[in-house]
Design goal:
The chain is α/β, with parallel strands linked by helices. Helix content is 43%, strand content 10%. It is built from 20 helices and eight strands. It is found in: Membrane.
Length: 471
């Protein structure tokens, strides 16, 4: 009897499967061996890779950005990263309705400012930042200059800044029901972020601050989580005065690597066979520990280029070294499977538990996964997207969003550029500050005049030089 999955695969896809399994087996073997190696041996690998890198490039003088990058590299966590630039943060814990404990960070004041009553209201307007897939809150504060960090700029401009974390990542690896070593702990997808993580975190922030509303800033999957949450929980719309989506993600076309893209779309659940049912790419921390940071950055660059055709030319080498060290955080395999289901069906849908889709014998399908009703979102939406970002199809996205959505194009920007690009303080942050000011004061006339009625991406598009810096 033929196996349904393998009966649909081409010879090239069979080769891809064999190669993927071989690489994963080799990585797992190395990881197992490393567990029994003394620290001195691991340090030797690190020093050897550093010497090899320096021998290839030769000695050079340190620049100011490189000095900052070295400090960020030594930072172990969010607190250390804030300490590099003199910011004092608060830590909070949110318990979701289904029992996950989420780490939540806060920047309540300007640089060096201490509060007599931490954990209380500041009276300032509240902004909530949420990261993307395989990330955590550190992505917002690991920049080589503080004026390019959106979180720090917001704090300096009088905002009460909160930074969230998804269940399972570095700061949220705890549940009152399941151990993180259990597969039940990792049994979550974007659906769970929409029903629990985002609304429960927002409710906690509003309870602590006493504010009636906050502004939401998401990056990549952090935007998808908000799109999903706002669409299925109408009451949440009244709690967010504006949703600013950076490098928005809703229904990406796919990956640049044709073999991987075709294989994953043919059977998204094949990822369960490759990675199991817990966290994905957990070996990344192992490679990071033994490779010299510039070499590790080059590995990440090559991987991003292969998978997404990103060249990251707008991000400096030193920024990559500093940021990539804080890039990876744990995520569930199921959440990645969910993304490939979305790509395969070209629809922003809920997780499909029916892994074996019914055979279609007519032009009418007998089954369709439930879609997130994103056109029902009432909250004002502002999209900031790069026109070189392979994961953003702006026309398709706008067709699935309400007509009051405003979209602003960032020329030559890719996905990660919007976080760490050399000119984010000129091209991105001023756009964010303007949108916050307009929607917090209720002044939307300028945006409506500038961007049209919301019927197409061209109607919504402005260039990234249209707003002057506000910092």
């Amino acid at each position: 009897m033929a196996v349904p999955l393998f009966g649909r695969l081409s010879i090239r896809e069979y080769v891809a499967i064999c190669f993927s399994l071989s690489v994963l087996a080799f990585a797992s073997l190395l990881k197992f061996i490393i567990l029994f190696l003394p620290k001195a041996v691991i340090n030797w690998f690190y020093k050897w890779s550093r010497r090899l890198f320096k021998w290839r490039l030769g000695e050079k003088k340190y620049c100011e950005e490189e000095i900052a990058a070295k400090k960020l590299l030594k930072a172990r966590d969010f607190e250390d990263l804030c300490g590099v630039y003199g910011y004092i943060h608060e830590e909070h814990v949110v318990m979701t309705k289904d029992g996950y404990l989420l780490g939540l960070h806060r920047l309540p004041g300007k640089r060096g400012e201490r509060r007599d009553k931490p954990g209380s209201s500041t009276g300032k307007p509240v902004v909530y930042l949420h990261h993307g897939l395989l990330m955590n809150s550190e992505i917002w504060v690991c920049l080589t200059s503080p004026e390019r960090s959106l979180a720090f700029v917001l704090a300096e401009n009088g905002y009460d800044v909160w930074l969230g974390n998804n269940r399972g990542n570095k700061y949220s690896k705890k549940s009152i029901h399941h151990s993180s070593t259990s597969s039940k702990f990792w049994d979550f997808s974007i659906d769970d972020f929409a029903w629990h993580d985002i609304p429960d975190t927002i409710n906690h922030i509003l309870q602590v601050t006493g504010a009636p509303q906050l502004s939401y800033l998401g990056f990549s999957q952090g935007t998808a989580q908000a799109f999903a949450a706002l669409s299925v929980q109408p009451q949440l719309n009244a709690k967010i005065n504006v949703f600013i989506a950076l490098a928005p993600a809703m229904s990406p076309a796919g990956l640049a690597a044709p073999i991987v893209d075709g294989l994953m779309k043919a059977s998204p659940t094949f990822l369960f066979l490759l990675f199991g049912r817990k966290s994905i790419l957990s070996s990344a921390t192992f490679w990071q520990s033994i490779l010299y940071p510039p070499i590790f950055a080059q590995v990440i660059d090559s991987s991003l280029g292969w998978l997404f055709n990103w060249r990251s030319r707008n991000i400096s080498t030193h920024q990559k070294v500093a940021a990539y060290a804080h890039l990876y955080s744990f995520a569930s395999v199921k959440s990645v499977v969910h993304w490939f289901q979305i790509m395969r069906n070209a629809a922003f849908q809920m997780y499909d538990d029916d892994v074996l889709s019914p055979v279609v014998v007519t032009t009418v399908s007998s089954y369709r996964p439930v879609r997130f009703p994103t056109r029902n979102i009432v909250t004002p939406i502002v999209l900031l997207y790069g026109d070189s970002d392979s994961l953003v199809d702006i026309d398709t996205m706008l067709s699935q969003l309400p007509k009051h959505t405003i979209a602003k194009r960032l020329h030559t920007y890719e996905h990660l550029d919007i976080l760490w690009g050399e000119n984010v303080h000129v091209d991105v942050i001023p756009q964010v500050m303007l949108a916050l000011k307009q929607h917090q004061t209720g002044d939307h006339s300028e945006a409506q005049c500038e961007n049209g009625d919301g019927t197409s991406s061209e109607d919504h598009t402005t260039t990234n030089n249209s707003v002057s810096p506000l910092i």
